[in-house]
Design a protein that fits this description.
Number of strands of chain A: 12
Helix content of chain B: 25-40%
Oligomer: heterodimer
Distance between the termini of chain A: 21 Å
Mean pLDDT of chain B: 86
Radius of gyration of chain B: 14 Å
Largest sheet of chain A: 9 strands, mixed
Helix content of chain A: 25-40%
Shape of chain A: globular
Structural class of chain B: alpha+beta
Radius of gyration of chain A: 20 Å
Largest interface: A-B, 40 and 34 residues
Distance between the termini of chain B: 23 Å
Chain lengths: 399, 103
């Protein structure tokens, strides 16, 4: 699935008359209901990408919300002021009721995005989704040629299928976003991925470098790019943005390990984003369940979604700046980046209230940066594939 | 399929929002918004007024006429502003052109 929501993107540009609303009207002061919500309607997925943003502990299908429960959620979201929903997963098309859910979302006035691996779609299903009111399709690509792409996804003939579905998407006059998750083993294909996006008549390309939590953290040694690779990637993106202005918009996310300042993850915890897990948990970030000791409320509880957003313990725990320790507490950037990513702080330091080590002011920054650099130069290329069994190591000869 | 991707807005263009860009009044926040793929744009008042006139029938010249009359302002200045605004929207991929009609 996409990293777009997990990692605040920098829009290519924003003009005076058409500001991006998230930027212009920060919800920060009031914790108003977010404009867009990510719905991870299932964790089931035929792909096994080693950087999957789903938690390592996946929700099994028996725990998933029912069709009626998701419809109730959609109605409630529209009522409290959410404008867009992203149907994601896992693989959202693995749910047989997706057309029904998209139809319901459209009926209650929500703008609908589909974030998909595409491999389960037929032309008929896609056409049904369009008829149900689907507004936009985002397809993930793992590379530009099937050897590498299918190996990364751990799924044979996936790449070929994605190309086909991308073509159908445009034939049905749906706007297309290509989501390319980038890492050491596919960064060399970036120029060709940009050209592929143009050839597929995509409107947008997300060049999303892997963010290292969950599955990706387990696979960091096989995925981490070098600083030189990343600099080249940035140069290629900047050149392409200029060259393709008006043809292809490019969003770009860098891996925060090589930044000096941490990212304003999720726009700040509980400030402008939440997602709903397959089992109905309302989460401040799709990785939030990796932080142990936090109790996330469910849409199946007696509380409304608006109440959970405003009042639940988990949302309030890291909201604002009151929870901070040094060096965040007295830092002049504390309200700029809110101390970075809580999940990363937890994963790398054992305490979500610590400064995200991506920040140069974290006492752990230097150690982690050096480790990443070593890993980037290392020999490890075998993946640990994502699955419900806790992961399967790629065989010596690949696949 | 959509028409040619890159459009150049002129006085004769007949602009219209594509089906994936929806102009909507947000009742919760009391603002007009454009809903687009994974974006929510906040058009300013003038932009909203222009976009409400973009129905694929009127051309940009007609729109400038309407606004010049409404605000009793010089048409040429308004026309220039409208073209800049619409071109920006087109460059972002949120504006299309109605096909020329053979009348």
């Amino acid at each position: 699935m996409s990293d777009v929501l997990g990692n605040p993107m920098i829009p290519p540009d924003a003009s005076d008359s058409l500001a991006v609303l998230e930027k212009q009207r920060s919800t920060a002061e009031t914790f108003g209901i977010p404009l867009a919500v990510l719905l991870e309607i299932t964790h089931r997925c035929p792909l096994q990408c080693p950087y999957c943003s789903n938690p390592v502990e996946l929700d099994r299908s028996g725990k998933e919300l029912t069709t009626e429960e998701w419809k109730k959620v959609l109605s409630e979201l529209a009522e409290i002021g959410v404008l867009q929903v992203h149907f994601s997963g896992g693989e959202p098309t693995a749910r047989k009721d997706l057309v029904d859910l998209v139809k319901h979302a459209s009926d209650v006035g929500l703008y609908t995005n589909l974030i998909t691996s595409a491999v389960l779609l037929t032309r008929e299903k896609l056409s049904d989704l369009a008829d149900a009111g689907l507004c936009h399709v985002q397809i993930s690509f793992q590379g530009v040629e099937e050897g590498l792409a299918d190996r990364v996804a751990g799924y044979k003939n996936g790449h070929r299928k994605k190309l086909e579905v991308a073509k159908w998407t445009r034939e049905l006059d749906l706007p297309l976003t290509v989501n390319a998750v980038m890492h050491r083993q596919n960064l060399h294909q970036l120029p060709d991925i940009i050209q592929m996006s143009v050839d597929l008549d995509a409107d947008r390309l997300e060049v999303a470098n892997v963010q290292y939590y969950g599955w990706a953290l387990k696979n960091r040694a096989a995925l981490m790019p070098s600083v030189a690779q990343l600099d080249e990637c940035t140069r290629i993106v900047e050149e392409a943005r200029e060259r393709l202005k008006g043809t292809l918009a490019i969003d770009y996310v860098v891996p925060d390990y090589y930044a000096l300042r941490p990212k304003k993850c999720m726009g700040g915890w509980g400030r402008q984003f939440f997602n709903i897990s397959p089992a109905g948990k309302v989460l401040p970030c799709h990785a939030a369940e990796s932080i142990t000791g936090l109790d996330f409320e469910s849409v199946r509880s007696n509380h409304s979604i608006a109440w959970i957003w405003q009042n639940s313990e988990a949302f309030n725990r890291y909201r604002g700046t009151g929870w901070m320790k040094e060096p965040c507490k007295s830092c002049e950037f504390r309200e700029i980046d809110f101390g970075g990513c809580r999940c990363q702080a937890f994963a790398l330091t054992g305490d979500a209230a610590n400064t995200d080590p991506a920040c140069a002011l974290s006492p752990l920054h230097e150690t982690i940066f050096k480790q990443a650099e070593r890993e980037a130069e290392g020999e490890t290329s075998r993946f640990l594939y994502r699955n419900f069994a806790g992961g399967t190591l790629e065989s010596e000869n690949g696949a | 399929m959509a028409g040619p991707r890159h459009i150049s807005v002129s006085e004769a263009s007949r602009p219209v929002l594509p089906r994936h860009a929806k102009l909507k009044y947000d009742e919760t926040r009391k603002v007009w918004v454009i809903l687009a793929p994974e974006r929510v744009l906040a058009p300013d008042e003038i932009a909203v007024e222009v976009l409400q006139l973009c129905n694929g029938e009127r051309n940009v010249g007609d729109i400038a006429d309407a606004l010049a009359a409404k605000y009793a302002s010089p048409r040429e200045a308004i026309l220039a502003d409208v073209i800049v605004m619409l071109q920006d929207l087109a460059d972002k991929g949120f504006l299309t052109e109605a096909r020329e009609k053979t009348s």
